[in-house]
Amino acid sequence: MIIIKQASRLQEYLKQQASRGLLSGFVPTMGALHEGHLSLIAESRKHADITVCSIFVNPTQFNDPKDFDKYPNTLEQDILLLEKAGTDILFLPSVNEMYPEGLTSLEQYDLGYLETILEGKFRPGHFQGVCQVMYRLLKLVQPDQLFMGQKDYQQCMVVKRLLAIMGSKTKLVPSPTVRESSGLAMSSRNMRLGADQRSEAVAISGTLKFIKDNLSGESLPALKAAGTEKLQQAGFRVDYVEICDADTLEPVETWDGKTPLVALVAAFLGDIRLIDNMIITEIDG
After folding, report:
1. Which of 10, 35, 82, 163 is the most exposed place for a label (fewest CB within 10 A)?
2. CA angle, corner 52, sides to 24 and 285, nearest 5?
3. Active-site amino acid positions
4. Dist. CA 127–CA 94, nearest whole Å
5. DSSP structure class, residue 243
6. What tens digit of pLDDT does each residue of 124-143 get?
7. pTM
8. Of the candidates 168, 142, 131, the residue with the CA atom closest to the CA atom of residue 52
9. Rounded distance, CA 262 to CA 264, Å?
């Protein structure tokens, strides 16, 4: 595995590989890697000739500076995991490398309603930060395929919108959420959970499964209210329990029995904010 820290060197190397006709896959991360990230590396290796992974904790997407300060740093372990997984290139830039002109007066993107609902509503500015860093990474790597996890369902939709804004030929390949045996969605934030909290956190996936299992017999507002109550009883402070059109992410109040739906949750356990989602209807194809 080659580790590159300078954007110019990365571009030079990748241009050489592209001139040989090699297809590239890209897995952007903020480090603190787990099996979910490694599953994306594995997917990239199946479909691309070269797999590029980036580790960069992007300051512009943290609307809470404390959250940025507490983000786990496990770089040495991450490097070992990526080597073992067969990653070809690790891009490891500094903040100055990614934002040479500083962090003020950055560009803004028209994300439409995606910026006003769910994560966009509860984390103002978050998706602008995601787009600011992803624009820079995509311009540098120019991958044929971009691999991202569906645990960040709304983020995948935002990046899809960004690719359209950029007129990029990169294909976004969302991959299913990887879960622990308990059902807990794998996340870098799980590293901050204590042993007791890890067992309590399973209530989120349990709530999503409850919504899925009771979809046909309940009204959607009643299901959301029941899901919220379940999480509150389990000790969570709930930001949202929502049911949305799986294709557009627009919230729905009634279901026609055909539209694919996704249930999404964001809730605090102590001071740790966890998100998860689950497709709750069968999707053809």
Report:
1. 35
2. 60
3. 37
4. 20
5. E
6. 999 999 999 999 999 999 99
7. 0.95
8. 142
9. 6
